């Protein structure tokens, strides 16, 4: 009897460690709002012309005084054609971030998402990361940001792993277990025209895997918001708009503008899969011509009545409960709970790297600099 129990426990343990392999997606079983097969089908079965064209602007890495000047200049007070303020999602890494400024971005209605505590190198660390590594780097970062920027934990929904380097199943297991709703780390350079729409991992993904390892297990809950690559001037794919190889000369604003528009039109005149415009702020600030082209692009698309620049999480809200364009246009603008920031400038030590940091936050100064394994700096 005891032996039977022991054997059962052992077998259960082995079974629990091995995730079920994802099977070919079954459209009958996989239905919205919580399951969607990976496909280029438009959610809700709408025709392209009845589908809102979403654009998601994103910026990665630490938020500081320098890049904040650019964000204020190009993003604040900008509206979609329907009169609602545009969205932008900031994939924030912790080291050197200013939480007073992150609070300001949140209070502008923008989305704050996760990009790890350390953003450490080498890339191989992220490819081989364990469940514990990713729990401490990503899941704990939600608590860290919510605390020091004084923003609601529920407002933090998305993840982008540094260097877009997934660790296969493990990355999504951590997201599933810690209430992280979506990932934006997985590029596709093949499913662009028509484009791949967001989907869940209950069933096997049809997406190409330019940065292996990608997940192959069935992992319900988290959504993949695939990163549809740009194509550079020679047609080669670039996962981020600032990682293209063949580009116009930096001073040729018009050529850059045309490059952006050409990429946008692939989706807009196609199946209207969300168009992601993924950048690092330094790319614009170090190349005024590219920045001018980016601003010109924003000026153009915010005049189109069927185009909506929204937070990344808002795309998912629509995909889960799709409504046709004419109905979407009448929706009220997004709302959020404003929060305050009683700013404090702190100075604290980080014992692992033996480094001192100066940083601004919206709470009392912590004893130590917040870090992996000690996200509140206690
Ligand atoms: C993911 O899980 C599946 C199913 O258990 C397994 O076959 C595959 O090797 C795993 N992939 C990685 C990268 O761990
Ligand atoms: Zn980064």
| Average pLDDT reading | 95
- The CATH class is Alpha Beta
Radius of gyration (Å): 21 Å
Bound molecules: 2-acetamido-2-deoxy-beta-D-glucopyranose, zinc ion
CATH fold field value: TIM Barrel
Number of domains: 1
What percentage of residues falls in helices of 4 or more residues?
A: 25-40%
CATH homology group? Glycoside hydrolase/deacetylase
Number of H/I helices: 11
- Which sheet architecture does the biggest sheet show? 5 strands, parallel
Task: Name the beta content range.
Answer: 15-25%
Distance between the termini: 48 Å
Question: Which CATH architecture would you pick?
Answer: Alpha-Beta Barrel
Task: Give an overview of the whole structure.
There is one protein chain. The chain contains eleven helices and 15 strands. The chain is an alpha/beta fold. The chain has a single domain, classed as Glycoside hydrolase/deacetylase (TIM Barrel). Strands 1, 2, 3, 12 and 13 form a five-stranded parallel beta sheet that branches. The longest helix is centred in the middle third of the chain and has 18 residues. The structure holds 2-acetamido-2-deoxy-beta-D-glucopyranose (NAG) and zinc ion. 2-acetamido-2-deoxy-beta-D-glucopyranose (NAG) binds next to loops. The site of 2-acetamido-2-deoxy-beta-D-glucopyranose (NAG) has 8 residues, from loops.
Question: What's this model, at a glance?
Answer:
This is NodB homology domain-containing protein. The protein has 378 residues and is of the alpha/beta class.
Characteristic key phrases:
378 residues; alpha/beta; TIM Barrel; five-stranded parallel beta sheet; four-stranded mixed beta sheet; 31% helix; globular; disordered N terminus; binds 2-acetamido-2-deoxy-beta-D-glucopyranose; binds zinc ion; hydrolase activity, acting on carbon-nitrogen (but not peptide) bonds
